[in-house]
Amino acid sequence: MKLVKTLLATSAMTVAAGAAFAEGHGNMANEMTIVSWGGAYQMSQTKAYFEPYSAMNEGLTILTDESSGDAVTKLRAMSEAGNVTWDLVDAVASDAMRLCDEGLAMEIDHDAMLAPAPDGTPASEDFGDMIVSDCFIPQIVYSTTFGYRTDLLPSKPESVCAIFDTDAYPGKRSLEKRPIGNLEWALICDGVSIDDVYSTLETEEGVARAFAKLDTIKADTIWWSAGAETPQLLADGEAVLGSTYNGRLFSAIAEQGQPIGMLWDWQMLDLDGWIIPAGLPEDRLARVMDFVYYATDSQRLADQAKYISYGPARQSSAPLVGQHAELGIDMAPHMPLDPANSVNTFLFNYEWWANYRDDMDAKFQAWLLQ
Amino acid sequence: MATTLQPYATTGQRIWFYTFRVLCGLIFFYLIFPILVVIPLSFNSQDFFTFTPEMLRLDPDGFSLKHYRDFFGENGDYSWLQAFGNSIKIAPLATLISVSLGTLAAIGLTQPHVPFKRQITALLISPMIVPLIITSAGMFFFYANIGLQGTFAGVVLAHAALGIPFVIITVTATLSGFDTSLTRAAANMGADPLTTFFRVQMPLILPGVISGGLFAFITSFDEVVVVLLVGSAGQKTLPWQMFIGLREQISPTILAVATILVVVSIGLLTTVEMLRRRSERLRGMSPS
Amino acid sequence: MAQNDSTTGGVMLAADGTPLKKSLDRALRAQKIRALALIAPLLLFILVSFVFPIGEMLLRSVQNTVGTDYIPDVLPNVVVELEEWDPASGEAPPEAVYRAMAIDFSAAFDNKLHTQLGRRFNYETPGMSSLFRKSGRPVTKLDPESGNLKEAFLEIDKDWGRIDYWATIKANSGRYTINYFLAAFDAERTLDGIKLKDPDERVYQKLLLRTLGLSLVITLCTLALGYPVAWLLADLPARTSNLLLILVLLPFWTSLLVRTSAWKILLQEQGVINDIWIWLGFEDRLSLINNQLGVIIAMTHILLPFMVLPLYSVMKTIPPSYLRAAKSLGATNTVAFLRVYFPQTTPGIGAGGLLVFILAVGYFITPELVGGADGTFISNRIYYQFSASGNWGLAAALGTVMLVVVLMLYYIYDKLVGVDNVKLG
């Protein structure tokens, strides 16, 4: 870890921007492949991180690959073959934990490698609980929540259980084609308290109960697998209610003026951030470290929130969050953790899903086929 | 003739004739309509795939060239042009490999007395038959092991393999109508095999080679499953970008791209059709 | 006896004096070699770029690995000790097995393989992934020399005493395994031997049958739509038919993604077709997409050219005089068609039908984009296992099953039609 030593020795932590820091590393690669999710989310990263960073580093080419959905598999295969072509990967927390467990992601010393808050608070404190894995550099808090057509429903839904109420809210629903989230909502709406949801799911009867609840809307459900589908389905009127990432809904509502409303009740919170593949050659690693130092400081994380309504993962970024870059509206009320939005929330239970994901998934697929 | 009308046709035959024609017309409509419907939508001024009320009223505000401008990078995002550039680099190289190796092999296969001819032909055509998901998963692992995964060369090789069946099929079809006495005549008159090939055989089978090449080209140009797995960010092709556009961001720019591609395919198709006629003329077969 | 002039002792000689038979043999051999030499470069190319990759994938369906390591190499001591233990005894393995596990597990932990091991066993016995994850650090703290490791393991987690877990490890002691194929056929190992899973957990049988069933429906649809079109094309004068042939070929030349997204736009509930339906005065909108119907409509469209072209090339060779002759001999239109015309087109039906069926079975993109939950094919599940779930062994086993089905169909196609008779316009 030559880099870390250099960092500590020159106390680069006090250097605000990456440019000055880059001078000490003449051997940085001038090409960097960043893997992300595509769509509005990647656009926000492009505007907030990639473009300003490229402007500061002449001759640098940033390639993007929209493979975050398959990040674990592709990285595993690349590493098996000993030929990792990615330099930085945007991953949800559960994928980051898995990659870390398997030694595919590099362990991060958050205080040494990342910028402190403007007031000098070390990065590890500034990120706090968001650091859910040793390999994870948190970026945003997002949620999977529901949007509905304001003009096609007889009344405004207030509770997430509206998805199971086909009498009061007739029409198609769109749900993600995986068990995560759906099983939790099914149990919550079947009267299980949030604290008991996961212990209930550990029993055969609990799983059967969740699927029985989902059975009631199976015929009315369109299953999505990409985050853009629900906004499209809602915009087309194909679905009247549907789950997706809150940022996608924000962009359909605020940027595209679609007649869609947000239903924040029992939103499922999750984290997303960077991981660095293990075993990068020195010059590429130096480039990535330089980029990450820049792109995860308090101001940059707050900048991303100008383009998409995901909450920055640093506490020190919260006060810096301003207005939407083009629309000029305040972004804070559109964030998942805004007090008005977070009355009922639950956190995607990484530990539990890591243990039961394969099992639940097999059951879910079999249920879909019935 | 069952499907043409004779002057002495009975009423029943007339009814049958018109019903049949209408039926065929509907089927042709089914074939073409989905392709045509894309074209007006690509001028949609909105970001979704729907006919807006403005469009249906033919209100000029409902239409715009926005998605075409996005394709050409006027919004500062050059990813579509880059993808187009990659496709334009990968497809011709893959075509070149398929066509050169494929034509040689097709000539070999149409010689008299080829051992294992049936088995070899079956093997060479199999890339068209084996489900793409199997091909691409296999290539993903194998190319990763030999360092070709995520490289330009890897994608070119993979696409060349997929294009080969088309070259084999079209070139052997041309060669099967080839009069071998022509090459014997050339040899008799003292031409060496290379001269015979380039001066006698090649001009005659050229239409078949070109049309096979166009098939191979369009295969690479349209291929998405293999490139998603074998390629990486540096080899993002147009179909790859479109697939992301369909799955991840639902950008109607893909309809603009689609329209451009439809125009290109009409051009290519016309070329193939003209080549086919020329080939038939050269081989002394009348097109009727 | 004129031909005997050039023989010496009964052997026919060529111009250069060698026996004719030998000379012909040599010429034949030279011809064969020349033909093979022309084919060889491509053959080599296809082997490397296409056949080897598929072979490698097939191999993965039986390799018993975590990452790049075979399981017996990761758990060397456990594998040896488990040989003595019989799951049917109804008792948890002896102390020696636990000691071996303490040693092997710590080594696996250091190589970051323990969670992968857990995931690997979890494919067969749910729950093992969590056991291995949770036991990670605690097991490395155990002292392999201590005498009561069994108790120590049970203290970390009581599931270490589960016989079915140990039976799973024992069943995976070899470098090669048939377990992925068992899973691909919805079977599993239980303590009482190999059994089929519960009927409502049989995913892959259903998917395979659905894939074959939908492909058959799609093939029949292409036949129903392709037959009249091909007939019309064959009957029309060449100039008109060539023009119409372009209409058939245009979809074939248009990007698959373009065609699929076009169908998405047309078929959705608020789409063009439903709008016309409502305009015609119907009350309810039709569900045409995100189900099997959507897949059938879109794939029939996409595969139709593969049916029309072989039919057309067969029909073109049928002289129209046959039908006229039949009719002038008194046959009605229907009889003339059924007894005279139709039988002559069966080779085209066979060629087109098999080709469409083979291609349909392997489809991936279209079912993915318009299939919804009940219109997906086995390809989609293979992709899911390959990419999202990361169970490469199962993906490979499913791929192998599918490949066998396709190759069998291809073999039939070759026998009936001949691979050199594929037509592309």
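qc> The longest strand of chain C covers residues 187-190.
qc> done
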